Amino acid sequence: MAQIEILGLSSEGLRIGLGRVVALVPNALLTQEMGEASEARATEWASALQEELGQALEDLRTGRPPARPFDQMLLLDEG
């Protein structure tokens, strides 16, 4: 599977992409996973979970619910 792109942290959460698919990892999930999320910590977290987040993006793209805890992610754009 291709590597996800880490598109940055906003007030809503961390945006990640895989090709033309863009999703939001909401702040609630980031907080659950790491406590307070900074840009650097969120980027490090997403980098460590490339495979799992890539699978979650693919699941969202095809209409399947991602595995927990990634089921909190939101599909933003399919290109």
Main β-sheet description: 4 strands, antiparallel
Order of helices and strands: EEEHHHE
Main sheet strand line-up = 1-2-3-4
Radius of gyration: 11 Å
CATH topology category name? formyl-coa transferase, domain 3
Strand content: 25-35%
Total strand segments: 4
Just name the CATH architecture: 2-Layer Sandwich
Uncertain ranges: none
Features:
alpha+beta; formyl-coa transferase, domain 3; 4 strands; 79 residues
Could you describe the 3D structure shown?
The protein has helices at residues 27-34, 39-48, 50-61; strands spanning 5-9, 13-18, 21-26, 74-77. With 79 residues, it is of the alpha+beta class. The two termini are 18 Å apart. It is built from three helices and four strands; from the N terminus they run E-E-E-H-H-H-E. Strand 1 and strand 2 (13-18) form a beta hairpin. It has one domain: formyl-coa transferase, domain 3, CATH 3.30.1540.
How would you sum up this structure in a few lines?
This protein has three helices and four strands; from the N terminus they run E-E-E-H-H-H-E.
List the topology elements.
Elements: E1 5-9, E2 13-18, E3 21-26, H1 27-34, H2 39-48, H3 50-61, E4 74-77
Antiparallel strand pairs: 1-2, 2-3, 3-4
